[in-house]
Amino acid sequence: MRAPSSLKKEFMKKWISGLQACSSAKQHMNILERKKAIKLSADIAMASTRNGRTCWSRALIANASKDGENKALVEQLLANDEVEKLNNHKQQFSAGSVRPCCNNNKRVRCKKILKNIRCVRSRARKNVPRVVSAKSIAKRMVQKRTQVLKSLVPGGEFMDGISLVEETLDYIVSLRAQVDVMRILVKATETMNRKATTIN
Amino acid sequence: MNRAAAAATLLPSEMLHCADMTVLERQRARLKWEQEQQQQQQQLQESYFGDLGGVVFHQVTQQGEFEGGLGEVVTRSVKPDPGLVDNSSAWIAHDVMAGFVGACGYGNGTGSGFDMNYGIARTTSCPPTVVAAAAAAAKGKDSVGSDSKMSSAVGRESFKKRKADKVVAEDDTRDKRIKGCAEEGESKITEKNNNRSSSSSSNQNGNNKSTKSSKENSAETSKDNSKVTEVQKTDYIHVRARRGQATDSHSLAERVRREKISERMKYLQDLVPGCNKITGKAGMLDEIINYVQSLQRQVEFLSMKLAAVNPRLDFNIDNLFAKEAFSACATNFPTMGMSSDMTNPAYLQLNSVQQQLVSCCGLDMGINPPDMGIRRTISAPIPETFLDSSCFTQIQPPSTWDADLQNLYNVAFDQGRSTSFPPQAFAGSIEASNMKMEM
């Protein structure tokens, strides 16, 4: 079992090294570029701390490398860790995520068909005034929120209910660690700058 | 053992996804650790019930209670985790002894072939008379043997559940084929069907017809079961259908799915602040969505801030800063780390040092040391190593707290309130930490 403290430590290390890689790749950036690079490197670092074991981290890396200009950077960041790990990522990614995708697509399609059938049936029954039950309203509300959550968690479109909740759990913990570390770094740099200005 | 028990509750398909400890498992491990004291007592006591309980009983008491509600999906089978095999085989050995004694005791009363394996394997298919007698006896033992209320309650409940025969949910291959067979009774419990290979069909029939015939069936078939096979039979889902609930395979599977989701939602509820008071799935999802969104926005904001603060993307300065600021602390630190043990005083000391470090970072002003120290000793299942003297350890001391995620949140909250420190305060706070260490 890995202690959660090591997660932050690992994230910190990876992030710092990723930032260095970013800064060495491009010398002069404006603030937006810098922000983008910082966020990207933080995301990649966070995802790579999970070692490709969770869906969201794999999806995050995949989404980041989808962008043309980011792709080189992502690969650089990942290669910065270890070369074998990257290979592992790729293997696991190709082995692990393609199959569930297929399954889920199938499932979604099935649901659509079912929904269509239901629609047809309800249309047929429409002449009869029907009371909308509270149960169905609640169901619809839950479905709507689940869709939103799926759009929030990276790679969530391809998850079913159970894995979505699980991945959300993991994602929240990672995000929290990320926020903590970032906050610490911001604070440290701020005090650094203040110190520098007072000395000067 | 934590790891193994946590892994035991996951299905094989999920096991593929999380080879490492996921958050869920960690949370489970934490919960489990909190109950460890009680459970140790219980396990001692359970060996008295060996004739009734066997492995199934262990699982009922452990995981049922562990999930917070005995009434849900109950017994999940043990995964063949390398860590667990030792333990569970030890348990089984234990139970064999107890079961043998029990068989000697109760086998005479019923006059039927109640042998050792039967005691282990077919615990739930006893005729009611035997159950009643055994329950009474066990209750007697219970009241004599220990004062632990919880275990006695659990025991009684599980005895009650054994009255009726069961839905046997069986999963031979990975496709989760669920055979359900329901009977009359207060409630139906699932059980580990040990003899699937030889006589699963006959056993099913037996379950359907009557408890007596099933008992005979199982009694003769379970003789040839060995302990090893019992450990290895792992691919079951155990479902219990209450009275009036549907027992066909689809609704059973659906129920399992729903209960799994709700269990994980409970963990999410623990994790997401302000989610405790909300009931209902939609409201909880709302909270979760808000929380995730706020975290993502925070990341955006912080990266923007970092970009604004740093003219260059070079953070080497920070490492220097960390080294400079904490060199004094770091010299004291390793010795403290060495002396740290699992014992509470050491933890407390360590913690106060840690705390001083944090407040000397200016990251945290709002936690009072004794409270934090107590919380720490309670909520940390694993001693963390502070021996790593890299700058990362010092630059982010609160990371060592997040064995407990609630604590993490508190820390985060306090960090949010905290003000940044004047750089001159270092010497004073280091002195303070030394004082604390000697405390």
TrEMBL record, chain A:
The keyword Transcription applies. Keywords: Transcription, Transcription regulation. It comes from the Eukaryota. Residues 5-66 form the IBH1-like N-terminal domain. The keyword Transcription applies. Pfam families: IBH1_N (PF26576). One of its GO terms (biological process) is regulation of DNA-templated transcription. This is IBH1-like N-terminal domain-containing protein. It comes from Turnera subulata.
TrEMBL record, chain B:
GO terms for molecular function: DNA-binding transcription factor activity; protein dimerization activity. It is found in: Nucleus. Residues 165-194, 213-236 have a biased composition (Basic and acidic residues). SMART domains: HLH. Keywords: Nucleus, Transcription, Transcription regulation. Residues 137-236 are annotated as: Disordered. It comes from the Eukaryota. Residues 195-211 have a biased composition (Low complexity). It holds the Pfam family HLH. Residues 245-295 form the BHLH domain. InterPro entries: bHLH_dom (IPR011598), bHLH_ZIP_TF (IPR024097), HLH_DNA-bd_sf (IPR036638). GO terms for cellular component: nucleus. PROSITE patterns: BHLH. The keyword Amino-acid biosynthesis does not apply. This is BHLH domain-containing protein.
